[in-house]
Specification:
Layout lengths: L7 H54 L5 E10 L6 E10 L3 E8 L7 E5 L2 E5 L7 E3 L4 E3 L2 E2 H5 L3 H4 E11 L2 E10 L8 E7 L5 E7 L5 E13 L2 E11 L6 E6 L3 E2 L9 H7 L2
Antiparallel strand pairs: 1-2, 1-15, 1-16, 2-3, 3-4, 4-5, 5-6, 7-8, 9-10, 10-11, 11-12, 12-13, 13-14, 14-15
InterPro entries: LolA/LolB/LppX, TP_0789-like, UCP028205
Pfam families: LolA_like (PF17131)
Keywords: Signal
Amino acid sequence: MTMTPSYYPHDVYVKRFRLMPIRTIFAAAMLLLIFRSALAADTAGGDLVAREMLTRADRIRFPDEGFQVDVTITTTEPDATEDVRAYRILSKGNDQTLVQTTAPVVDRGQILLMRDRDLWAFLPNLSQPIRLPLSQKLTGQVANGDLARANFAGDYEPILLRTEKIDGVSYHVLQLDAVDSGVTYRRVLYWVNAKNSRPYKAEFYALSGRLLKTGLYQEFRAQGGETRPTRLVIEDALRRGRRSVLEYGEMVMRDLPDKVFTKDYLKKLSH
């Protein structure tokens, strides 16, 4: 008896073989999409929490409103004479800052102007201002940006790394990565009090990842409507024994007009 070959079972097998991988791939793709969405939401939420922490710590160091404060910087180095310099800072809205040198007498009239992240130096013996990087040394262990641009939230993307205890006090440790190459440091590790958002310590890193210096925020006292650090100790991490101590005087809240933060206005002041 001649049997007519039937391809039906084979066809079904082929169809199943072809369809099942497609279904499997589709299901796997959907699971991956859901996982990525959940991960992105979690990451975004974490970044938001870190940014809120950073913003609160920024506002404790300096207010958003216009203010004036005098700062004295004392630099000590092994086998060197102590160097003392004084500056007057006028700031408005965290993106407009004026730094006037008040001591020593020979340097009076020198002015730094920061608008956004553009920094200019006005010198009495020069007719035109000079553009400077925020990362350039101002004096001792202090960079230009340490005085002229103290707003971390505007310059860095924060990530909450961990929470740790120091002497029984809990601190959130934030990793701050520079938004671009124009900021003062490539990376900052920042310890913020978990209870009251007060800054405690900062580590400042170079582009290479090398630790440049550390800063300790000290002597908190009420001024400008907030309890703020009035002393910052910056120590060189590369050369032992080199440090600069910034001591802030009484903060005065001021209504500063925008014209104060213009080149034309400062040319008159520096000459």
